[in-house]
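# nightly structure sweep
# worker-07 picked up a monomer target from the shared queue
# config: single-sequence mode, recycle default, output format = structure tokens
# input follows
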Amino acid sequence: MTLAGGTFALGGKSEGAAGTTGIGLLTLTATSTIDFSVGTTSSIVQFAGLGAHTAGTLLQITNWDGTPGTGGGAERLLFTGTTTDFTSLFGQNDVTFNGLAGYDAVQFGGYYEIAAVPEPTTWIAAALALGALAFTQRRRLAKRRG
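# output follows
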């Protein structure tokens, strides 16, 4: 499948499944969109792998409601092969999920998933929680010594 500037609108439909190819190689020749659509029906797409990627073009994923960081959610963008197939062609700024640049490539047996990077607020909340934990443990250790 060659995306040359249009939108591949899934409309709640799936092409393939985890580990089962549903569509040919993905070739990106112009900035294009894969639209998972809004609604209650989930979509899964598994490409046979990657074709060419024209430098400077973006793969925009919209209305994706998968699991950030780890993949495996209800909506999935899958490829046959290994994560290095994708990361060697697409930089972090070449892929956007719902308008945010960046992706995680998660390897499974014989295929991999491209998922959104968790939102920055998730990382900030985790850092604050870790800081609070360190502060309370420091106080606890200080009481034991004194």
